[in-house]
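Extended Data, panel c. Modelled sequence:
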Amino acid sequence: MLQEILRVEDLSKQYNGQQVLDGISLSVHAGQKIALVGENGTGKSTLARIVAGAEAPDAGSRRLAADTVVGWLPQEIIADDSVTLEAYIAGISGDLLALETRLRQMEQDLSTPEKLKIYGSLQAAFAERGGYDLVMRIPVVLGGLGLNHLPMNTPLKALSGGEKTGAHLAALLLQQPALLILDEPTNHLDFAGVAWLESYLAQYPGACLMLTHDRMFIERVATLIAELSATTHRLTLYHGSFTDYLRQKEYAYQQSLEAFLDQREEIARLRRLMKTTVHNPRKAKIIQDGDKFQRGYMKQQAETTRSKAVRDAAQRLEVLERSPLNNPGRLWRIAFPFDPLPLTSAQPLRLDDVTFGWEDRVVLRGVNAQVGRGDRVVLMAPNGAGKTTLLRIAAGLLQPQHGAVVWSPQVALGYLDQEGETLMTAQRVPDAYRQATGSHDTDADITTVLHRSGLFSDGSLAYKTIAMLSVGQRRKLGIAILIGARANLLLLDEPTNHLDLASLEAFEDALVRFPGSVLSVSHDRRYARRVATHVWRLENGCLRVE
């Protein structure tokens, strides 16, 4: 039996009177790889923060095994941009470096058995966490995450969002804690980085709790999938890979549907029985000898039997109606009802000799390309290559230093940024929607639209500000704005980031049916396979169209 390194029991958490977690219990053992999945806004990141020790639950307990080190990668990295990459990595993996320093200090005096015992224990922990080969592991980890091209004295402010996340992840992997908590670790990694991380985590000696939308990543790394329910706020555990999870989910769905249909049929049968017994009582057999006492006795017996049958049926019906089963066929479904403005132009977007650079670095070199009507283009490139820069130029948010961007007059452009930066955090959700779409609808009408489409199931949505939404909910709001604005040319920067699994499948289906044009940046391999009709690759500032 593997050592248990973490146990949480009966955790509960509320925000603004709303239940987020309710009676959560989970045991994590050494070497276990757990994928935490569920709809956006269900509380996955909240649970991760509690497990990491960054937030306290309202009730319940969190117990770590002695000397267990926890490493946490949050969704949003907040760091001092003035520090260098080297200082940043050293700061996060600092406890391992501090442990090395303590060992060196103790080596000066090992004169007593007690000191030798402590030294031996610390030395074993240091070796187990890869302390002795830390220097050799630094280039391996940085290279695997695509950061080895960066000088160690590079300030964080010069890094892209993906590079900054990669630096934080690199520091955690170098620290090699007993428990890694990774919130969307693949969001800003390119294909090579994701493949390397999959291989690294599969062999990682510690445990890992990962919150990710990357279905292939879950398939290749996870050994246990914990699903957080949006309705019960509890966990359901599924052993095995992502494929096993889908199979078990489908089996559970069929079982639930069968139980629901059986209960509905039993309720209908009991109601028919009561109605038939009360209104159509069987006539007692006629007694030929005219014995009125015997006739009365038989009538009384029939009435008693009939009353008991009615009473038993009523009791059984009351039990069933007191605990009705939900119809799994009517579960909340996510839909993305795009209805874009007509787009008849054969060439909605064209890039003519676009050149752009930052300071002494050229990012785009004479880029020429076009997006045709009905095209779904996926732009791929390593982190820092200029994908977002190209997309922002295509959206008119950046001006090229040379060349031009040409849009068809029919284009209604919709731009979805990576993290919802274009949304004002102090605005209420309906106000943000109105401002972005030009809608004059009431708060109630807007929330009805969002709920009906399945983009949100939150009943208090009209009262929430953007800052109160989860990252995934902000992503969904951004997509809702594209729909509400009836955009027919979609420019999407990592559109699958932060979306839950059900939303991902529905969004991909909607894009495949989308009658307009799409240009998206994505590292999601399954998304690219399902959606792309054309692939652009950006290499050393030059664009290659496939």
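The chain has 16 helices and 18 strands. This feature is highlighted in the accompanying rendering.
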